[in-house]
Amino acid sequence: MKKILLLLAVLALTGAFCGGCRRQNGEEPGAGLPDADAQAVPVRLEAVERLETSFPVHAAAVLARKETVRLSFKTGGLIAAITVDEGQEVAAGQVLARLDLAEIDARAARARTALDKAARDLERARLLFEDRVAPLEQLQDAESAHSLARSDLEVAEFNRRHGVIRAPARGKILKRFAAPGELVAPGQPVLVFASSEKSWVLRFGAIDRDVVRLRLGDPAEVRFDVFPERLFAAVVSEIAEAADPASGTFEVELTLDAGEDELVSGFIARAEVMPSRRVSLTFIPLQALVEGEGKKAWVYTVDSETSRARKLPVILERISDGRAAVRSGLEQVEAVVTGGASYLNEGVRVKVLAEED
């Protein structure tokens, strides 16, 4: 026991002596321990790039004539004849279909007879009034009856004219919905007509994030599967002011420069629209992204005063060509961590490596 106590005492004196020696030699206590730089995480930084740019809007669009009309009869009845088939070219004013007009003609004849009677009653009432036999009220009633009879005849004649469907312009029949002998209701579509005198258009639905970037006149490039070698030019000609309640998208119309190619309504095209509106975005390498959830992601930067890592949330616009376009979150940041970002946590001390390291 005495030997153990003596050994501990000798060790204590030796340690005190050595510490004194180090202080005499100018060394601080703990000089042999690892320093802060040895514990720092090595990282590489890359400068962010800020640009005024615009990303294209890609969409699948359906080809149609600018003027496509569903043709129908004003009144219901039996179809007497349909003189055209689907795909047929027609001339302006050509008769396309007509109803059996027997009932409509009978109504027009009855209205004409009623007008003739009202005209005779009016003339008789006017003579009696001039002879002071009939009161003014009787004359006024006769005038009203004559006016109503004339209106009834105009309606009957209007319905008769619209018991025949004529081509509103030169064009093509795209669809036929009925056949002779079929009973149709008023306004029921019978034919779909596309005017050849109007330009070709493409229509597609754009989401709200894309439609706010589009302007009338923005250029577009269009490709059809049936013409794989051709690139068609188009421009934005219409933008809907309200969203479609069913899809939640906004209809955008492109007017197509078709040239002499044989196009058909219903062709599906791939359109790329280049918005004229440019936005300011910050571009960073994909290696800088350490986490992501939808449009939200996180990156690391380095606090130059403390040499510690800072974790920042960012909102992404899109990812393309090996870079991430950041909409917001890096307004005051000049560089982000690329190399070593996966080893960092908030507040960790870092050591920035030089490019040659």
Structure description:
With 357 residues, the protein is of the alpha+beta class. Among the domains are: 87 residues, conserved putative lor/sdh protein from methanococcus maripaludis s2 fold, CATH 2.40.420; 87 residues, Efflux pump adaptor protein, beta barrel domain (Elongation Factor Tu (Ef-tu), domain 3); 61 residues, Helix hairpin bin (Helix Hairpins), CATH 1.10.287.470. It has 5 helices and 24 strands. Helix 3 packs antiparallel against helix 4. The relative contact order is 0.18.
Summarize the structure.
With 357 residues, the chain is an alpha+beta fold. Helix content is 24%, strand content 39%. The protein has helices at 2-24, 36-39, 102-130, 136-161, 208-211; strands spanning 41-43, 45-47, 49-53, 57-65, 68-72, 77-82, 89-90, 95-99, 164-166, 171-176, 183-184, 189-195, 200-206, 219-224, 227-239, 250-256, 268-273, 279-285, 291-293, 296-303, 308-320, 323-328, 335-337, 350-352.
Blueprint of the fold:
Layout: H1 2-24, H2 36-39, E1 41-43, E2 45-47, E3 49-53, E4 57-65, E5 68-72, E6 77-82, E7 89-90, E8 95-99, H3 102-130, H4 136-161, E9 164-166, E10 171-176, E11 183-184, E12 189-195, E13 200-206, H5 208-211, E14 219-224, E15 227-239, E16 250-256, E17 268-273, E18 279-285, E19 291-293, E20 296-303, E21 308-320, E22 323-328, E23 335-337, E24 350-352
Parallel strand pairs: 1-24
Antiparallel strand pairs: 2-23, 3-18, 4-13, 4-17, 5-12, 6-8, 6-11, 7-10, 8-9, 10-12, 13-16, 14-15, 14-17, 15-16, 18-22, 19-20, 20-21, 21-22
Helix pairs in contact: 3-4
